[in-house]
Amino acid sequence: MNTQHASAHTAESFEPRSEAETRLHGYRLVLVRLVCLTLGVVSVGLFVASIPSYVAHLHLLCTGTAAACNGSGQLTPDVRRLHELGLSLDFYVTYTLVLLSIFALGYWLVAAFLFWRKSDDRLALLAAVSLATFPIVVTPGVHTLPWPWWFLAHVIILLSILCIPLFLYVFPSGHFVPRWTRWVLIPAIVYWGLNEFFSFSSLSPFSRFQLLNDLIIYLVIGGIVVVQIYRYRRVSSPAQRQQTKWVVYGVSMGGGGYLVLFTIPLFFPSLFQTGSLVRLITFTADSVLLLLIPFSLGLAILRSRLWDIDILINRTLVYGSLTALLALLYFGLVIGLESLVRLFTGQVSQSPIIIVASSLAMAALFQALRRRIQSIMDRRFYRRKYDAAKTVAAFSATLRNEVDLNTLREQLLAVVQETMEPAHISLWLRPPEQTSDHQAVWKSNPPASSE
């Protein structure tokens, strides 16, 4: 019991000591602040400077492959899809610029807020640099800049794609854990340096060996996953685990959703041609999903509302599963009813009655399915909390019927031990007050009521 108590005390005291170790002082603090400010200002300046050339670039029609056109954002010579929507080329260019500007502004605002609130914390400054430079990585407009600015933009891109994995390797304590993980970044530095500046040169072996290219990427990503799992299970304090949950949630929802939308066009290329309505919708969804990353990261760094992440994850699992299940049941019901109607009447046209009946069925199933999915998620992913709630509910039912004090005391201690698992339990009972003889007689023999 003493060992458990000591370990709990160590876990509680680890957090402030770790935060203090990540703070900078003296000339190092001034130097790092200047570097962060310079990189942020240069990133904003490059983005603004690329707007005129990118506007001219978007007004040109792309004659390359579909992948190249989608990557650059240019329309294909066949612009009738855009005209069928009643939209012009100028609208498409303006919409693209506004969406990219909102996306970049979201990252810059979070980076500026981190710099303002925690400018003496090296982990927060690393996160601010990563967020401030990331819009340059994903914005194709910087590739349209002339030579001197193009080279500067690629330097910022290289620094950004090095800061991002570095941050994920040292988060949330600000140190490499285990220490040997710092050597995993060396092949990443070599890879991204050669690939960024010599991607089409014979000096880059990655342009000829795609397997080596993929191996480096998988090595870095796999190292991040392994390190974060190791930290979460063996090193992190309770608050740091909540920080990790916030970052994992933002990256999973933002990056995962982006990858899903990125892979769908591979199976349905005709629906996702540049300028089509589906392409505009997915482009908007990509930008919104990727904005989840800076906001979740900012909450994790600032340690704001850390414990709300458990509720957010639970609601996401429940309502995400519920939405997918209802959609599957809805389409299945519509197809099944249409088949039955076609079988008995011979009509092929879609009946509005089928749509209305299917919608009413989904509305009737909503609450029952939600409760069922909530129960499954609680038992599967929140087993301890689910068992604790069931145990407390059973004790509450017993409390209304049990009158023996010793039995209640034993049951109460058992419930606390099972639900909270403390290192030590003490129960203090208030002694009964001394009563007068008149009160004692009254308690033992209450006066008879006059009728």
List keywords for this structure.
single chain, 451 residues, mainly alpha, disordered N terminus
Architecture overview:
With 451 residues, this protein is mainly α. It is 75% helix and 0% strand. It is built from 17 helices and no strands. It has helices at 2-21, 26-59, 66-72, 80-84, 89-117, 122-138, 147-170, 185-197, 210-235, 238-267, 277-290, 292-302, 309-345, 352-381, 383-399, 405-420, 437-444.
Structural class: mainly alpha
Low-confidence stretches: 1-18, 435-451
Distance between the termini: 61 Å
Overall helicity: over 70%
Number of distinct beta strands: 0
| Radius of gyration, in angstroms, nearest whole number | 31 Å
> Largest sheet, described in full?
none
Per DSSP, what share of the residues sits in E-state strands of 2 or more residues? under 5%
**Mean model confidence by pLDDT:** 76
**What pattern of helices and strands is seen along the backbone?**
HHHHHHHHHHHHHHHHH
Shape: flat
Secondary-structure blueprint:
Layout: H1 2-21, H2 26-59, H3 66-72, H4 80-84, H5 89-117, H6 122-138, H7 147-170, H8 185-197, H9 210-235, H10 238-267, H11 277-290, H12 292-302, H13 309-345, H14 352-381, H15 383-399, H16 405-420, H17 437-444
